[in-house]
From TrEMBL:
Classification via CDD domains: RNase_PH_bact (cd11362)
Lineage, highest ranks first: Bacteria, Pseudomonadati, Pseudomonadota, Alphaproteobacteria, Rhodobacterales
Top EC class, one word: transferase
EC number: 2.7.7.56
PANTHER family: EXOSOME COMPLEX COMPONENT (PTHR11953), EXOSOME COMPLEX COMPONENT RRP41 (PTHR11953:SF0)
List of residues binding phosphate: R86, G124, T125, R126
Name of the gene this protein is made from: rph
SUPFAM superfamilies named in the record: Ribonuclease PH domain 2-like (SSF55666), Ribosomal protein S5 domain 2-like (SSF54211)
Family from the record: Belongs to the RNase PH family.
Catalytic activity: tRNA(n+1) + phosphate = tRNA(n) + a ribonucleoside 5'-diphosphate
Protein name, per record: Ribonuclease PH
Exoribonuclease phosphorolytic domain mapped to chain residues: 10-140, 159-224
Function: Phosphorolytic 3'-5' exoribonuclease that plays an important role in tRNA 3'-end maturation. Removes nucleotide residues following the 3'-CCA terminus of tRNAs; can also add nucleotides to the ends of RNA molecules by using nucleoside diphosphates as substrates, but this may not be physiologically important. Probably plays a role in initiation of 16S rRNA degradation (leading to ribosome degradation) during starvation.
Length: 236
């Protein structure tokens, strides 16, 4: 039995509210159980220097957690003068994932920055950030298309992410903190809605896993992906 009482293949409740930030070209608040992330997408008519005169656009991301997003207060990274390694790793993952779902030549020479701010954390914050970040990006692209700044839709497909792992000896879908903190195996699957994989992060925390267990977790991830894409579509 999972601590939440969920079935092995059951996601937490997912909701996505759009238009929560007045000034951003795209924004949403995604809730995956008790994990809540505010996602905003901001358009800038410039690109990083290494893309100048290439005709290619850029999508990047920044990630952060509010001091009381967890059960104890974390000091703001700005107060420490630098980002932690975990923060840098997660925001790079978000950026890579969102870029995989966009045609950068159709975007044109502009940059969209997706900010993901964790308001409340209960496991799976990077996955929620990617899933909600895609919705914010989609809304920003819609804004550009409405104004005529871009002529063709650069979005290739839906991008979403979900965690899977081995808890109490069983492969499970969408780990919350109670499971994630003691999971034998922990992983994240980032996918397009056509089933293609963008990135897989898997690690044996206290045990190892075999090919059959990896296959089971991939099957779980595909099921979770279907529910996340449905939530994205409903929000839009």
């Amino acid at each position: 039995m999972r601590p939440s009482g969920r079935h092995l293949d059951e996601m937490r409740a997912v909701s996505i509210e759009t238009g929560v930030m007045r000034h951003a070209e795209g924004s949403c608040l995604i809730k995956v159980g008790n994990t809540h992330v505010l996602c905003t997408a901001s358009v800038e008519e410039r690109t990083p220097p290494f893309l100048k005169n290439t005709g290619l656009g850029w999508v990047t991301a920044e990630y952060g957690m509010l001091p009381r997003a967890t059960n104890t207060r974390n000091r703001r990274e700005a107060a420490q003068g630098k980002q932690g390694g975990r923060t840098v790793e997660i925001q790079r993952l978000i950026g890579r994932s969102l870029r995989a779902g966009i045609d950068r030549s159709a975007l044109g020479e502009r940059q969209i920055t997706v900010d993901c701010d964790v308001i409340q954390a209960d496991g799976g914050t990077r996955c929620a950030s990617i899933t909600g970040g895609w919705v914010a990006l989609r809304l920003a692209i819609n804004t550009l298309m409405k104004t005529g700044a871009i002529k063709s839709d650069p979005m290739i497909g839906h991008v979403a992410a979900v965690s899977c792992g081995i808890y109490a000896g069983q492969p499970v879908l969408d780990l919350d903190y109670d499971e994630d903190s003691v999971a034998g195996v922990d992983g994240n699957f980032v996918m397009l809605d056509d089933g293609r994989l963008i990135e897989v992060q898997m690690s044996g925390e206290t045990t190892v896993f075999g090919r059959s267990e990896l296959g089971t977790m991939l099957d779980l991830a595909e099921k979770g992906m279907a529910g996340l894409v449905a939530a994205q579509k409903a929000a839009l």
